Structures are given as structure tokens and as C-alpha cells.
Amino acid sequence: MKNLIDKLYKTQTLEKDEFIYLLENYNKETSEYLFSLARALSGKYFGNEVYTRGLIEFTNYCKNDCYYCGIRRSNKNVNRYRLTKEEILSCCETGYELGFRTFVLQGGEDGAFTDKAMVDIVKSIREGYPDCAITLSFGEKSYDQYLKYYEAGANRYLLRHETADEAHYSALHPDSLSLENRKECLRNLKKIGYQVGTGFMVGSPYQTTKCLAEDLLFIKELSPQMVGIGPFIPHKDTPFGSFPAGSKDLTLFLIGILRLMIPNGLLPSTTALGTIDPKGREAGILAGANVLMPNLSPIGVRKKYELYDNKICTGEEAAECNVCLRNRVASVGYNIVEKRGDFIGFEE
Ligand code: 5AD
Ligand code: FES
């Protein structure tokens, strides 16, 4: 077990069977060993600095119908909303004052935000906040569309692959969505020059350790700058509403593995991890994560962007979360810093 972790530390990857063995046999002691190596690496590249990204959930309309997601098209209980450009810019203003130097525009796949509208929004943020990074995260688009947003001033794009196993992908999504297209989008984003983030849910329905090993090997091959993972959490109004949530320990173990695979990578300790355990985000940092993505959305819409049940921080003002997070991060010996937090060595 430890020899495999040592091998991963040295070579930054493992064979599929070796990943499966690790994922099926890890325990408290091996996890602690993995986390200590992971922390040594995050310490080497980032010291005790933790970066934050202000998340602006600008629309919960979505044309897709993913079986796990609370804002899927078929969920008629969702109160749908769209933020105006002015509201988005006002989130940025609040965020900048609170110390954020990255804004993430995240939303469902919503046709009402045309390319023209998105380009206009991105340009305005770019003009108003020249020292900030702009991250986009609103799903699958064509090469030309991604290029337009990039030319308007966006720097990064988040698009989790969700699962790298074909059969598993089909178990989580309707036929209109394909793993092949997802991968093509990720390759296009990289080609254009975005810093790219991918990722997956831990413990999603029908996931096996083989699926997870495939996720890790896909990530190795793609070589993204960011990887976001969090536990699957059921949402009551979805087809997966009665499946169990993913495991905190396995999520943490995977964060540790990802830190060893991408030593200088940007790895968030996610809100989903903080939702299944009150100290989940702190534990994520101690497992090798170095990014937090607090919510900057207007308080009135937060509860409407419920991808899963009981999402935390939906009743809190951005300023309250800011103070809370600073204390949480300090409690485990780290510091939130006011920096863009780009991937080290990345050139645009
Ligand atoms: N539980 C956990 N994560 C979820 N996501 C969507 N639905 C859920 C859920 N029920 C994740 C997906 C998506 C990201 C924005 O949120 O991985 O890419
Ligand atoms: Fe939102 Fe703690 S981070 S309340």
C-alpha cells in the first residue's frame, strides 16, 4: 500500500490496477500517509496560501437533464432565475472589495445567454477588473464559441467530465449527452489556451473503483490545470433522489491522490465536501486542496441554485462566508490570500 503511494509520489501516475488496489484498500493510516505527502507538495508550491474564487451562479435555467442534478430541465419545482448583467457586475464589485481576484461565472446551459450577451458580460468584467481572472463554467459549447469568450477576456473554464467510463456516463446522463463530446470540449478549451478545470463526483450512482481509476487516468492524459471533485449528494427531485451520498473519506483520499498526480495543480476543497461534513472543507485542505470557491451570488437566488439537497451557505451574505472561511482556513494553519492564483508556469 505505502509502496504504491511512494510510486505515485515519484512517478505522478500508476497503472489502472494499482489505482483500483489503492481505492479498494485504503484505510486511516494509509490516508494519513498520503495526506502528509500531499501537504508537503502543496506546501512546496503554495506555502500555506489558499486561493479563493468568487462563484457567481448567474442562471439556473438548463436545457440538459442530467439525472443527478437538481436544476435539470425536468425538475418543475425549481424557481428559475437569470441575473442581469448589472447584477453580475454588482457581484464582482462586492467580491473585489472582499478580496476576490477570480470571478467564476457558473450556470446551467441556458440559451437566453447568447454568445453576444456572454461576450458583452465578459468584456465588461475584463474592463472593470483588469487584475482579476475570469473563469467560465456553463457547459458544452463549440470551439468557436469558446474562442469568442476567450478573446473577450476569459482566462479559465471549468467543465467536469463527470465520469470517464462510457457505460457510467450513460447511466448518469440522457442520450443527448456523450462522453466523447465532453472530452472534445475539454480538448478544445486547452487548445484555445484556457486554464482548464475538469473533475467528477465521488460516489455517484453506479460508480465503481474501475470508473474512478479511469477518471484518474483520463485526468493524467488531459493534464488540466485544475481538478474539482466532491461527493455526490442526492437531490430529492431527481431520479437519483434516493441514492446514498458519496463518502467523505474516499473524496479526501482522491484529493490526496490528485495532489500527487498534479503537484502544482489547483484543487478546490468543494462546497459539496463542506455539505456532507461541517469540517469537510478544512479536511480537504489538509488532504492537499488549495482553493476555495465561496458563493458570491445575490442572497435572494442562492437557494434556487440547488444542485443537491442541503447545500451550505445559501442563507449567508458573501461577507459572512468570507469571515467564516478565513477562520476555518486559519484553524488548520493556512491563509486565504488576495491573489489571482494562476497555474504556476502557465503562459497565455
Ligand atoms: N451532487 C454533487 N455534485 C453535483 N453536481 C451536480 N449535481 C450534483 C449532485 N447531486 C456537480 C457536477 C457539476 C458541478 C457543477 O456540480 O459535477 O459538474
Ligand atoms: Fe459560508 Fe461558513 S463559508 S457560512
Written account of the structure:
The chain is of the alpha/beta class and 348 residues long. It is 44% helix and 12% strand. It has helices spanning 2-11, 16-25, 28-46, 85-98, 115-128, 143-152, 166-172, 179-192, 209-222, 248-261, 271-276, 280-286, 318-331, and strands spanning 49-52, 54-59, 102-107, 133-137, 156-158, 195-202, 226-231, 291-292, 335-337. The chain has a 6-stranded parallel sheet. Helix 6 (143-152) links the parallel strand 4 (133-137) and strand 5. The chain is globular. The model has no long low-confidence stretch (mean pLDDT 97). The structure holds 5'-deoxyadenosine and FE2/S2 (inorganic) cluster. 5'-deoxyadenosine is lined by residues 68-69, 160, 162, 201, 230, 232-233, 235, 272, 307-308.
| Strand-residue proportion | 5-15%
The structural class is: alpha/beta
Largest sheet: 6 strands, parallel
Mass-distribution shape: globular
What is the rounded distance between the termini?
40 Å
State the main characteristics.
348 residues; alpha/beta; 6-stranded parallel sheet; 3-stranded parallel sheet; 12% strand; globular; binds 5'-deoxyadenosine; binds FE2/S2 (inorganic) cluster
List the helices and strands and how they pair.
Layout: H1 2-11, H2 16-25, H3 28-46, E1 49-52, E2 54-59, H4 85-98, E3 102-107, H5 115-128, E4 133-137, H6 143-152, E5 156-158, H7 166-172, H8 179-192, E6 195-202, H9 209-222, E7 226-231, H10 248-261, H11 271-276, H12 280-286, E8 291-292, H13 318-331, E9 335-337
Parallel strand pairs: 1-8, 1-9, 2-3, 3-4, 4-5, 5-6, 6-7
Helix pairs in contact: 2-9, 3-10, 5-6, 6-8
Bound molecules: 5'-deoxyadenosine and FE2/S2 (inorganic) cluster.
